[in-house]
Records
---
Amino acid sequence: MCIAPVDEMRKNHMTMLLHQRDKTVQQGIRGQPASLTGCIDCHVTPDASGTVARSDDEGFFCTSCHRAASVKIDCFECHADRPAEMISQLDWKSLNPINHSSLLAINQQSFPYALQFRLETRSMALNQ
Amino acid sequence: MNKIDQYRRKFLGAASAAFVGITIAPGILLQAGNAATAGQGVSDAQRWGLLIDTNRCEPGCDACVQACNKENGLRSIHGPKTDAQWIRKVSLKNRKNGHVLNMPVMCQHCAKAPCVDVCPTGASFKRADGIVLVDKHTCIGCRYCMMACPYKARSFVHEKLTDQLPHAPRGKGTVESCTLCVHKIDRGDNTTACVQACPHGAMMFGDLNDPDSAISKQIKSLGSQQLRKKLDLDTGVRYQGIPV
């Protein structure tokens, strides 16, 4: 069951999401009926072969209507277009994790407050 | 008083009256409740913070950084110069006596955050419970906050991203930083990924406003320092074992 009748969802889903979005981010109100994650959890389901449509695909739940209505949204440039379980199945290590040792070197060279630190304590310096 | 002055006075009076009305309204909302999960907003009854013991932090260990990357889905795209970093491991050496300090440095969640002051759109904001966040819906990617931050805590997303996690939306053209694992706090985990991952017990998470919390008791007994205390930012991330 959706959070409201189909007619109302078709007409007002964007208002519901916009309203809830600010409450969630700025006031930390979570677990409310209108939530993008909630939409995705129900409306993005794997087909018989176990694959799901991605946000750019014609078969994606949001895109199928938005294409027809000529609406361009950018929700999925940041938000996940699949339920959490499908993403957690991805191998995190294989997705090119950040190379920590090279970052360490860069941090040591360019960390700005190290200089401030030295100025403030008069005895501290970067360990190079 | 000439006519122009009279007009100015009238205008300023009306403008300030309108301003008072606006500021009262969100204030009431913020006081509305303190349970994030009960449909009410977070309140300033809590002030979430971290306590980091630099004497326990080991050189070369990056468990907190890896845990943060995994929890929030941070990945390398075009190499270290543009990769997002929410936690940096930093070591500092005292040249006089050779003592080396190791510590993770992330967003310090300042009570008086410079990034919030400079943001032209209000995207960089401080939540009532002290967590400093970026509302990426309104962030225009100007990066003023990155320049204002005295801790180099913020990163800019340069590339189009894929496979973001549902609880950690991230996108090209916005600035991001440590969220103090706000999604975990809001669901009541009462900890952060880095604190959970630290194998040396060097990090502690808790409510700085609650005198009975473990973090407050630890600070009460051993004291704590702020990085760059002279800036008077009242940071939520505190350190032990750094020179005062």
Note: Confidence is low (pLDDT under 50) at residues 19-36 of chain B.
---
Amino acid sequence: MRLEPIPAPSLARRAGFPALALGLTALIAMGLAALAGAAPGEVAWLVVKGAAGSKFALLETLNRATPLIFTGLAVAVAFRAKLWNIGAEAQLYLGAVATVVLGTGLLDWPAATLLPVLAVAAMAAGALALLVPTFLKTRFGVDEVVTTLLLNFVALLFVSYLLEGPLKDPMGLGWPKSEPVIDAARLPRIAEGLRLHWGFGLALIAAVLVWILQTRTIWGFEIRAVGLNLKAARFAGMPVNAVLVRTAILSGGLAALAGFSEVAGAKGNLTTDLSPGFGYTGIIVAMLALLHPLGVVVAAIFVAGIFVGADSMSRAAGVPSFIADITLASALLAMILALGLTSLRIRR
Amino acid sequence: MTEGFGETVLRLADITVRFGPVTANEGVSLELRRGEVVALLGENGAGKTTLMNVLFGLYAADEGSVELFGQSLPPGNPRAALEAGVGMVHQHFTLAENLTVLDNIALGTRSLWSPVSGTRALRARVRALAEEYGLRVDPDATVANLTVGQRQRVEILKALVRDARILILDEPTAVLTPQESLDLFATLRRAVANGLSILFISHKLHEVEAVSDRVVVLRHGRVVAEAATAQTSRAEMARLMVGADIAAPAPRPARPGPVRVALRDVTTPARGTATGLRGVSMELRAGQVTGLVGVSGNGQTALAGLIAGLERPERGTLEIDGKTPAVWTPRTAVRAGIGRIPEDRHGEGTVGDFDLTENAMMELYSRWPFSRAGWIDRTSARAWAQKIIKRYDVRCPGPEAPIRLLSGGNMQKLILGRVMETAPDVILANQPVRGLDIGALTYVHEQLLAARDRGAAILLISEDLDEVIALSDVIHVLSEGRLSPGFERGTMTPTELGAWMTGAGFEDAA
């Protein structure tokens, strides 16, 4: 028995295997729920209800999906060019720092001018955080997986220092948190009385723009060519290093928008727990979306739904919400397996 | 040692192999007798490699059986084939470069649990076999330091040490100098005299004529002819392979024009194991094919890279139309009117997952009409691809199909079309017909000659001496990064060129 590659898998295979992966994931999750002593069917129902069973639940899911769309896009864009950006977490935090530094009163402008400036500043900070590893990669061949990954810890310690020092809120009763941003620096709610803020709208726009960039423009063509075959791209005359730098700016900027959106939209200030691993979860989101920018939106909502649903299920059924992490991990592994199987068949 | 000669050692009966809708072999039957050399001929995609992989147990046939020495071979089990005495020398060698010859030969033959290594006995055995078969190679040399010809000898020794009774050689002479090929044939004759049987796969008809007793011709996965070599001719074999008469391009006199590209005493650094150029001076003239031969790895990659824009001179100058370009990159090379056919069509020439349209515009994408203010104009790009597909007879499902689905020949036609359609002043053709069948090969050669007659300066780099001699108006030889003087058409025999390829004739030759 051996595995053989299929040169052109059919649509049924390409859709069927990922669907099978999600089904398998659901089975694993329900099995775990059973182990925890709950009725698996009820747990599954509670997760779905908790994620999308009411207007409040659905909006909570979309709120949680917002930063994941940004980090998912950041990873998807970079991975397309085979620039292995594992540092979306660091870029997110630097984006948040830029937002807080400029948004807590330093620039006392109306929202219409302040918000765009904050977004651009955040993107610049995030881009910088990825440009350094990219430069080390193109100039000295340093593996960006290592540098971007380690920079996550550097960035978090840097934020921790800022929150204990220069950015510490004097009114914060000693807690390590920044001053809240001024009202003009808050992203408005999408509708009055809803918790959902315009960060979500911005994320959707970003996904569409990235999609257009990748499929319709010369820059996107270059990014895809560099990612698929670097040697052929170089031979054809593409400026490979410039392409990587552009990709890094875009990717780092997108991840930083997650930080901007969380500070200006959701939280209002900066703490060291601003992101419960959005940068890392963005990798799962991007992989589940097969690096497709519009798929990122769907995958981010799915992942956010599992987190939000599991939280609510945990309260109702007494099953630990860690089940959400396990579910996502198995979804990722099952998806990677499914992708492999899509283009392989078993021969005896 | 003549007893048993003529008995059947290998019998392939009615082998059918399908890959989905594609039938690679259909009812192929083949017999190999003791002490016999059988040449397996066929165009690319005719099913030769599939058949060899079935025989070696790498693929399991859908139908049919493999019988070795009267025993049927369990399908899909290379180990069984090895143990039954089948030795395979692949076109691309499977040696560990960082190990010695002896270690490479020993690899896989020893038990993991054996307390003694048995190196001494093995060295004696290798020495004896090398002596017997004329396979000169130092058992303690590191493989990385060996020439291609020496590596091939190691591969053959590997098979002999494992007591192979049947040797399969897949295009063994593709990378050898003429002299090395003659040595190989001498080795094969000794092996046959000792009772081994040989299956020899080659495109080169004169070699088939020289070494084989019998030829079997495959076309579209079926055996279309089988004949004693003595009773057939090269023309006949070529006709059987293709299924049509093939006319080689008739040599036409060249009308050399002005110098388009000039190298003046150019030196380039070595890259990894690839040799750099050492003080190379040459001129590429309009309306002339300049051929470049040499054993693989003697600086061809550096010279091709220099013309293609991937490499810059470390010392010396490169002149395009009399001027030294200030910036020299692949993009400026394309802009300077240099059409480039890369050596590795999969690795450098195309992006496998891109469709034909995207691959067709790879070099021109940043220019009008493909780019309109940074936006890709798919319509122009598709029209361009369709023009190339039509004019250069690229067989494909359509311009939207990923190029990795195409055969090597059709991929090469797309690259050729992409180059020719821009009417370049200079054409770098690096191994333009490697792995192509006779039909595609003749087509590529015709196109190159047509471009020459139109006034293009062509640099043809190939490891195939016959190809270079047939097409070139001037021939240079590269050896260890040094370039020979240019020899006019008809002034050198293959043997004389072969001597230059081994380094004889150069001023600093030892």
Note: The first strand of chain A starts at residue 2 and ends at 5.
